[in-house]
Amino acid sequence: MTTPADCVELLRAMVRFDTVTPSASGRPEAEGELGAWLADFARRWGFHTRALPVAGAAPNILITCECGHDAPWLLLDSHLDTVGVEGMTIDPFGAELRDGRVWGRGAADTKGTGAAMLWALHESAAAGALAWNTALLLTVGEEHLQPGAQSFAARDLPTLGLRPWGVVVGEPTGMRVVAAANGYVRARVVTHGVAAHSSTPERGRNAIVDMARVISRLQSEHVGRRPAPHPLTGAGSCSINLITGGTQINVVPEQCEVRLDQRITPDQTPEQALAEMDQVLQRLREEDPTLRVSVAAAETAAPLPHDQNTAVAEWASATLRGAGQDGSIVGAPYTTNANRFAQFGLRCVVIGPGDIAQAHTAEESIGVEELHAGVRGYRALLETRDRS
User: Fold this and answer.
1) Where is each Peptidase M20 dimerisation domain found (predicted)?
2) CA-CA distances (angstroms) from residue 175 to 113, 330, 351?
3) Is the pLDDT of residue 137 over 60?
4) What is the pLDDT of residues 278-317, one digit of tens each?
5) Where are any strands of DSSP class E within 113-174?
6) Would you state the pLDDT for residue 145?
7) pTM of the predicted model, to two decimals?
8) How far is CA 134 from CA 273, 342, 343, in A?
9) Which of 98, 124, 307, 353 is deepest in the core (most CB within 10 A)?
10) Angstrom distance (rounded) from CA 202 to CA 347
């Protein structure tokens, strides 16, 4: 593959790599080829690169450029994986350039931010304009559980000798500054019955029938309840989205399971959300002591708290506005790598070119002018030191 001549060509080259996230593609190292190619590309520009192992996955790629020993570190992050391509109505890996846009899976979410970050780092370094020692982290697995971000924060960061003043996570925000974001709790609720032959159902206990009562109560007392909205991220949400039960048509089912997806605001914690679900179930247990029902977390991600990120958000907002970008401080209802980094005490904001409405769509794309605006915005951040 030839060396891209500009950021648009870099993005198109990235989109041509199939990096559908391992949980969807079944390929544990789905991002490995793209990560290795970008590392080689960065070394040609004189940057130092490292492959940082992630258990059971392709490695993260860390690209660094130091401008001076006394300068603080700024960490940029962009993920390499994408969601699946089922239902797409364009060639997901064609990277077509037409109508002033780059088309393909990941163009917006979020190879566009990665291309803009790397190109901005190249331009700022070549101009001798870097105000920060800069690390660009290209992470794996963000679309499912964020193992790349978690591995870096827990294992690599304490040993690398750099503690970033702030972290800029790349996602398509229209160059607005996301300083708070919702987290999530994906919970498993299980009813336990007694199996029996369907010719004598009275000898068993039907877990699906029990689950019908549980669903009705959860829907009325938990799913439909809305806590006060957060000033930046809005209200949380909750829905029952999966149900499984039974083994075959002539057996009374001994187990039934539903999965809930609850989006929690920065005013909540995953533990609180689970406790509230269990309180609803406990009232059912008290009404019927023979009911066996349990709730447990299948996956969780803590929210991104606004207060922790105020200094970085205000610096980024002022810097971007000074460079002619939007720069307004907002919140987001979705979860990113920033949620994971924040759990380790890092101050994070989410900023990037493109529109989140394009993410995961059948005709995903990003505008060429949006991409160029991303390069300008990231350059402004790389070349402007916090003075507070």
Assistant:
1) 182-286
2) 10, 11, 5
3) yes
4) 999 999 999 999 999 999 998 999 999 999 999 999 999 9
5) 133-139, 166-169
6) 93
7) 0.93
8) 37, 19, 21
9) 353
10) 58
DSSP 3-state of 251: strand
Angle at 300 between CA 297 and CA 302, to 5 degrees: 140
Cβ atoms of 182 and 303 within 8 Å: the answer is: yes
Backbone angles phi, psi at 155, to 5 degrees: -110, -45
C-alpha–C-alpha distance, residues 173 and 323, integer Å: 16
Q: Which residue has the tokens 């809930």?
A: 260
Cβ atoms of 331 and 306 within 8 Å: the answer is yes
CB 11 within 8 A of CB 172: no
Q: Could you please report the per-residue DSSP string of 5-65?
A: SSHHHHHHHHHTS--B-HHHH--TTTTHHHHHHHHHHHHHTT-EEEEE--TTSPPEEEEEE
Peptide bond connecting 336 to the previous residue in cis, omega within 30 degrees of 0: no
CA 164 to chain centre: 20
Instruction: Please identify which residue in the block is written with the tokens 């679309």.
Output: 143
Maximum pairwise Cα distance, the chain: 81
Closest CA relative to residue 212, chosen from 195, 196, 194, 189: 189
Sequence-ordered strand ranges (E) for the chain? 48-52, 60-65, 73-79, 96-98, 101-103, 133-139, 166-169, 177-181, 183-192, 196-197, 237-245, 251-252, 255-264, 293-301, 329-332, 348-350, 365-367
Amino acid letter, residue 171: E
- The residue type found at 91 is D
What CATH number labels 183-301? 3.30.70.360
The structural domains of the chain, with segments of one domain joined by +, span: 7-181+304-382, 183-301
What does the buried/exposed string (b/e) look like for 87-111 if buried means 16 or more CB atoms within 10 Å of the residue's CB?
ebebebbebebeeebbbbbbbbbbb
Residue 383 host element (H or E)? none
| CA–CA gap between residue 15 and residue 146 (Å, rounded) | 20
Percent of the chain with pLDDT over 90: 95
Sign of the CA dihedral 328, 334, 338, 339? positive
- C-alpha distances out from residue 4 to 41, 44, 87, 231, 373, Å: 9, 12, 30, 42, 18
| Structural contact between residues 192 and 207, judged by C-beta atoms closer than 8 angstroms | yes
Cα 43 from chain centre:
27
